[in-house]
Structure to design on (98 residues):
């Protein structure tokens, strides 16, 4: 079954609206852009020895997905993002000293 481009966009838009709930769209975009960034860097740099961005153990997008259904998913996702930021803040500080 082939899906037309406009049908796909409509379906994605409806899904986003359902996920967003009562949250303002300007606030929602901050969450989505953060998730997209984490997904991108995880896909690009996970497991690379000399990567520009370090993906710490337990701090990947896959680890976030594993939280599906968790009661405190928001807090746990914040911890993943903090772990990713902390790991790379240390990398930036280390590279600046060299």
């Amino acid at each position: 079954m082939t899906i037309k481009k406009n049908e796909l966009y409509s379906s994605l838009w409806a899904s986003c609206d359902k996920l967003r709930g009562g949250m303002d769209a300007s606030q929602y975009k901050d969450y989505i852009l953060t998730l997209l960034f984490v997904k991108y860097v995880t896909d690009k740099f996970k497991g690379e020895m000399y990567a520009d961005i370090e993906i710490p153990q337990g701090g990947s997008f896959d680890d976030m997905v594993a939280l599906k259904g968790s009661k405190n998913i928001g807090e746990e996702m914040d911890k993943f993002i903090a772990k990713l930021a902390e790991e790379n803040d240390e990398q930036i500080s280390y590279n600046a000293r060299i």
User: Anything to note?
Assistant: The longest helix spans residues 73-97.
